[in-house]
Write a structure and sequence with these properties.
- The protein has about 500 residues and is of the alpha/beta class.
- The protein has three domains: about 80 residues, Archaeosine Trna-guanine Transglycosylase, Chain: A, domain 4, CATH 2.30.130.110; about 140 residues, Rossmann fold (3-Layer(aba) Sandwich), CATH 3.40.50; about 230 residues.
- About 30% of the residues lie in helices and about 20% in strands.
- The protein has 15 helices and 23 strands.
- The strands form six sheets. It has a seven-stranded parallel sheet with strand order 19-20-18-17-21-22-23, sandwiched between helices. Strands 1-2-5-8 form a four-stranded antiparallel sheet, with no helix packed on it.
- Strand 10 and strand 11 form a beta hairpin.
- The radius of gyration is 24 Å and the shape is globular.
- The termini are far apart.
Length: about 500
């Protein structure tokens, strides 16, 4: 059976989505209209007359306002649809519901690495982490010594990961939220369950000193968490030699870790979308939402993020908050972003990106409504600041920017041990030490970039699968990946370059 010509998201919508390229003067019998324009797949078609200034609806929600009169059959996009403010009823907790958990005896399991602190890793890496850009080269040289056959005698070690960055360490004002975010990020990676050991490498004179990080975050330095600075060690060459020796000493202990059967409740799944298109909210995001619901029912945690990309949909999340306090934590973060962007002469409605728009998205409201569906339908149990340790089980939210590497870095610092990343335009992304699964929103892109995509969710739009079926498939793939199955980005060796701590405030 051929796929439907258009997709309607809600009975109250006054636009539908073209599911194929449509020429002008084409009859769409299901909607009782004739197209007025040539319309690309993924773009919107007006199904009703909408006067200028009146709301346009998709998902049964406002996605913007007509900037000129719309007639049935016309192409609706940036030329005639614009962002506008409107009141949103947060109705804290009004739509919470009892989540029926899977019986303990029937809960899913995976093969993971049990750590002494009670967390479980899905990978078993050693990490070399630069706390300053000035130590990036030395850190790279240390890790490079363990490429190829260097780990042949340590079959349980997945590799030595180097994480460098161009922000933080020096230049940041070492006070307030900027300092707190920096500390949370690096201490989170030091404790990341996918690392069996970590070596922190600094220069020595930077504004944010490793001893202050260790003391401030309560890190326990020992055989599997070590620190060093280039200045104390005596220069680059000596630092590289010493760093190699320290990683070599960590390897035997790391190799002792073996996969054992663990409950799915030990999984913390980071939910991300990037390179979104109009299909994101139709196929991949709701399918990932269905997988998130399954994980929650099995006792696990699913973490939604990207505060700028739930803007305009936050009222749908507050309605699911388990308490007014949790809901207000989310709104406080939204208000912070409104102030933060205004302070820099920008606004949250500057999104979507040019690629998003080419894929059919028009306003931040439309993008956010689709992005929020990654979070499924279960109750919102907590809200976290960037890189805070995730302790709750269930559906949670973390405040991060919409910039994908920085967003995922925050969730990984918070303890995410698997990531699912939906994409419509074709984002290629890895995030060592955590596996990242890429979920394609449409079959055209999946077929074009199949070497980078793990799941084709475009089969939903094609009429070949349902959202619940894809949700089950994604959930099972998450378990397999957590048990050691390589993601496409891991097969390509990606993930060392995507470490991107979010920094706020002035760089001095």
């Amino acid at each position: 059976m051929p796929p439907p010509l258009t997709i309607r998201m809600h009975e109250s919508d006054n636009v539908v989505i073209a599911n194929v390229d449509v020429l002008a003067d084409f009859e769409i019998a299901a909607e009782g209209l004739i197209t007025r324009d040539n319309i690309m797949a993924g773009h919107k078609i007006a199904t009703q007359a909408v006067a200028a200034g009146q709301p346009v609806r998709r998902y049964g929600q406002v996605i913007g306002f007509a900037s000129q009169d719309l007639v049935p059959g016309c192409h609706v996009h940036s030329h005639n649809l614009e962002y506008g403010q409107f009141d949103r009823d947060y109705a804290f907790g009004a739509e919470t519901r009892e989540v029926e958990p899977v019986a303990e005896t029937d809960r899913a399991t995976f093969q993971g690495y049990a750590r002494a602190n009670g967390r479980v890793g899905t990978r078993n890496y050693l990490g070399v982490i630069s706390t300053s850009n000035c130590s990036a080269t030395a850190s790279r040289y240390i890790a490079d010594a363990f490429r190829g056959e260097a780990l042949a005698d340590f079959p349980n070690v997945d590799g030595v990961v180097v994480l460098n960055h161009s922000t933080g360490g020096c230049g940041l004002i070492p006070v307030g939220e900027a300092k707190a975010m920096f500390y949370r990020t690096f201490s989170g990676y030091a404790r990341q369950p996918n690392f069996a050991g970590v070596l922190l490498v600094g220069l020595g004179c930077e504004g944010l000193q490793i001893p202050y990080l260790v003391e401030g975050e309560g890190l326990e330095v020992g055989p599997q968490l070590q620190t060093m600075t280039i200045q104390d060690t005596g220069g680059t060459r000596k630092t590289v030699e010493e760093g190699i020796a320290r990683i070599r000493d960590m390897l035997p202990e790391a190799n002792k870790h073996e996969r054992t059967t663990q409950p799915a409740g030990k999984l913390v799944l980071g939910l991300e979308c990037g390179g979104s298109d109009a299909y994101s909210g139709i196929t991949a995001n709701p399918s990932l939402g269905a997988a998130s619901d399954l994980l929650v029912r099995h006792g696990g945690t699913a973490c939604l993020a990207e505060t700028p990309e739930i803007y305009g949909a936050e009222h749908l999340l507050t309605r699911r908050a388990v308490s007014r306090q949790v809901g207000e934590k989310l709104i406080e973060r939204v208000r912070w972003w409104e102030d933060y962007t205004a302070m820099h002469g920008a606004s949250l409605d500057n999104n979507p990106s040019p690629g998003n728009k080419e894929g059919g998205l028009t306003t931040i409201l439309e993008k956010s409504l689709g992005a929020a569906t990654k979070g499924g339908t279960t109750n919102l149990v907590d809200v976290y600041k960037y890189a805070e340790t995730i302790t709750a089980q269930g559906f949670v939210f973390m405040d991060t920017p919409g910039y994908d590497p920085a967003s995922v870095t925050g969730m990984v610092a918070g303890g995410a041990n698997v990531v699912c990343f939906t994409t419509g335009r074709g984002s290629v992304y890895g995030c060592k030490p955590v596996p990242s699964l890429k979920l394609a929103t449409n079959s055209r892109m999946y077929n074009h970039m199949s070497e980078d995509m793990d799941v084709n969710c475009g089969t939903v739009a094609d009429g070949d699968a349902t959202v619940p079926e894809l949700g089950e498939q994604i959930f099972r793939l998450v378990l397999e990946t957590a048990s050691g199955k390589l993601s496409k980005s891991e097969e390509l060796g990606m993930g060392d370059e995507e470490f991107a701590p979010w920094t706020v405030g002035a760089t001095l």
